[in-house]
Write a sequence for this structure.
């Protein structure tokens, strides 16, 4: 179960690295604009906000990687903490921005969290 948990945590971390790249570096290009259906002007106007969000997603990814690399109990505790942050961010994003975030972010985080807790 520990291996499955580590793989799921790594996938959630990778997803947040992808979100970081999308929001910080590709927001004004086709991948970023098509995510929300923004035209060039709207993407340019919202780029600073997206970059800020991307940075926070990078911190989530860094925390999850730290959790994978650190020895237990610190590693496992870090995974639980950062996965809880991912789930809360996903639920809040779904409630305030786009319901797709619930499936794209909160659900993978919750599955990884459940697996980490079962592996303890």
């Amino acid at each position: 179960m520990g291996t499955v948990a580590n793989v799921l945590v790594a996938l959630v971390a990778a997803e947040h690295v992808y979100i970081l790249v999308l929001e910080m570096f590709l927001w004004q290009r086709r991948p970023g604009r098509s995510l929300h259906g923004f035209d060039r002007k709207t993407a340019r106007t919202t780029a600073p906000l997206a970059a800020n969000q991307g940075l926070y997603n990078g911190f989530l990814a860094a925390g999850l990687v730290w959790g994978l690399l650190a020895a237990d109990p610190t590693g496992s505790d870090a995974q639980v903490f950062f996965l809880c942050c991912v789930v809360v961010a996903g639920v809040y994003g779904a409630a305030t921005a786009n319901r797709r975030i619930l499936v794209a972010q909160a659900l993978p985080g919750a599955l990884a969290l459940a697996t980490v807790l079962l592996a303890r």
Q: What stands out?
A: The chain has five helices and no strands.
